[in-house]
DNA sequence: CTGTATCCTTAGGGATACTG
DNA sequence: CAGTATCCCTAAGGATACAG
């Protein structure tokens, strides 16, 4: 992905991720794909944060055009579309894990399984490989 | 920080960071504090992304009330205010580093010193301690 | 220099109806 | 079920003037 003149603000790596993920919704879709094994449009709609259908469609498009996710036809059911992470999307996993750790530390309401947190601090590499192996 | 009813959407750790950092500006202030040694209002204003003064004031307030940054009077110059990261703010460093790696990998325009990237992959712990030691 | 305040415009996003 | 389309409103944010 290259910068387009529309949203280009700087050559900073922090700014670069903000151009794609600097909103309230986009990263939730990545989360659903990465940790919740969701693949279908309707499954994203059902998440707790209640994304609306027009926003979901918009973000799926943007994620696809930025190469973070890809679409495929469900071979079993032709009317269904399967969404999945590309390698670029999968590479967001370390960021997601650091976010999870930070929130777990600073938000008492954040709900993450204790054994996941423990595995993360003691055997991070295996958490990564296991998470990736579960992806569709 | 606890969730307030205003922006509460779920108990998900990913959502939790989005409630604070899910916009185009907030994380840039953290970046300036963490990597650019900026401490003054006017310095944030001068960043490449050109944040406007009302947005900057709003984000500084929100970051302070969420405990990520703190204010202090400049002892040399009473009319100046010094901003700095709290421990909670400093703990964002691993997230920032993962973001930097990802952007460096996927955006050819992203400008990060090569020796920083190399140090990050070969001696991450020392990058962390060195970055923290340079903080005001 | 460090903010506040105001005005104004645009983008984000909720609700909902509709289509294949 | 998987989206599109439309309507409408609010929040985000740019520009700029002003104040301590």
From TrEMBL, chains A, B:
This is Transcriptional regulator, HxlR family. It comes from the Bacteria. It comes from Pseudoalteromonas denitrificans DSM 6059. InterPro entries: HTH_HxlR (IPR002577), WH-like_DNA-bd_sf (IPR036388), WH_DNA-bd_sf (IPR036390). The keyword Glycoprotein does not apply. Residues 12-111 form the HTH hxlR-type domain. GO terms for molecular function: DNA binding. Pfam families: HxlR (PF01638). Signal peptide: none annotated. Keywords: DNA-binding, Transcription, Transcription regulation.
């Amino acid at each position: 992905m290259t910068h387009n003149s529309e949203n280009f603000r700087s050559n900073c790596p922090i700014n670069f991720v903000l151009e794609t993920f600097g909103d309230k919704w986009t990263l939730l879709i990545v989360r659903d794909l990465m940790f919740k094994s969701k693949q279908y449009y309707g499954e994203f709609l059902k998440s707790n944060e209640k994304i609306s259908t027009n926003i979901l469609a918009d973000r799926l498009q943007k994620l696809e055009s930025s190469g973070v996710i890809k679409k495929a036809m469900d071979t079993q059911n032709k009317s269904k579309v399967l969404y999945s992470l590309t390698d670029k999307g999968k590479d967001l996993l370390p960021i997601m894990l650091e976010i999870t750790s930070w929130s777990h530390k600073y938000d008492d309401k954040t709900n993450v399984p204790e054994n996941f947190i423990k595995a993360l601090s003691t055997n991070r590499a295996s958490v990564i490989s296991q998470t990736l192996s579960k992806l569709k």
